[in-house]
């Protein structure tokens, strides 16, 4: 059986994979402005933190933003200080986090499978992690800290007790909590406790339960070391918003329509996360079918010289790391794809094990037969995807700006499909995986260069308008919007305080106020209003699609010097 690679021979290939993943994410992150809502709020809050010097608690639109803890804002604000207030400096945090997730995935896989290259590459080139790593949100950072705590447990699982285990796990849990609150505690504790319960004392983790409790308490102390001063500085408002108001909604209601409220909608959403895994982990999901019962027949590389490294030990560990997250998030009312991100690195290890098993008896012949179906499905899906890229922009008028990009992407997809079918044969499974890994990277980069630019001009009117007019606005200008409350423009205006006006009478009072003023107006929300308002002049106009609500909008900016 294959032995674990060591030295530079084992480290360099995995390092090359991680560097490649990081570069793909970084390049993708440079090709678009921030998306509405989540990205825009995080970016603006980080910019306000950096410019105000208030590093204790985050604000958005210069008001307390208590829905998440402070860690990701700290990281983004530090990046702004180092590289300036740009998209890439803020998204850099997520790109680095996913690169480290790939590293940790590879290190764990290397202990069991002899090599971590395949697992690291598969994790990095899965659609959900690509999207997460190129977006300015908390999700990539949270996943990194959760996986760090689980990696510490794997070291305990394999090597027995070490002095650093509890302290490093406590730090990892504390940082995860500082990133996203209770979920940063719940997932590490539940997954590790489940693995211990299933192991029944057979692994070298032994009686780790009480030390897990110590690590969890240490993480809570780290969280409270920030949380108590932040709460005191906001007059107890932080806890009132985060704990009393936000947490119950997060646990017991479908926030912003993400999920189904009520018994029947909840039951209908139960298959949600298996579907997320099936689609968000393509094309690697299909490789689970290569070996009959891939999970049951998972194949570690070293000789089973102890239970922890044996097939049964690895299967128990994977069950502990995967099942609690699936069950916990399925029971929650709100449903979003990134809620199950912590299972994706472990499924990458499962797929890497299936690839290894497919090369060995008694599974090689079965895997070769099943690869014929994989190739057939790949050809069908490639042709259907190319047809959609060719035809949809011509059929659906709002997407007509994608006609040229659709042709380029459609041809590229056909070429990659043909390359896969031509150079890969049922008995050359690893060749097929290499082609698909490269194909995923090429498709992502091509999408970044050919699909994102026309998408910018179609669905980002607020961001582009704000970027256009920022240099034309005098300092200390009062800014207001009417009929438009999305956060996309805050960052690109330099994060001034924006007064979002909803009532016509309030708007008239604001227009009559003194000093330089900028009004950003959704024209559809102001029928009968004289444009430009008296004393104002038109700065710029941008039209497009409000992708949050699926409607056509036109925004105009007016300035009174």
Description:
Helices cover 61% and strands 7% of the residues. It is an alpha/beta fold. The chain has 3 domains: 7-31 and 66-357, no CATH class; 364-457; 460-560. A 5-stranded mixed beta sheet has the order 4-3-5-7-6. A two-stranded antiparallel ribbon has the order 1-2. β3, α21 and β4 form a beta-alpha-beta unit. α8 packs parallel to α10 and α17 packs antiparallel against α18. The longest helix has 32 residues, at 364-395. It is globular. The chain starts with 6 loop residues before the first helix and ends with a strand.
Keywords:
alpha/beta, 7 strands, 61% helix, 3 domains, globular, 561 residues, two-stranded antiparallel sheet, five-stranded mixed β-sheet, single chain
Whole-number tally of structural domains: 3
The helix content is: 55-70%
Low-confidence stretches: none
Gross geometry: globular
Structural class: alpha/beta
CA(first)-CA(last) distance: 76 Å
Summed up, the helix count is: 22
Largest sheet: 5 strands, mixed
| SSE order | HHEEHHHHHHHHHHHHHHHHHHEHEHEEE
Task: Give the overall pLDDT as a whole number.
Answer: 84
State which percent range the strand residues make up. 5-15%
Largest sheet, order of strands side by side? 4-3-5-7-6
Radius of gyration: 26 Å
Tell how many strands the DSSP assignment holds: 7
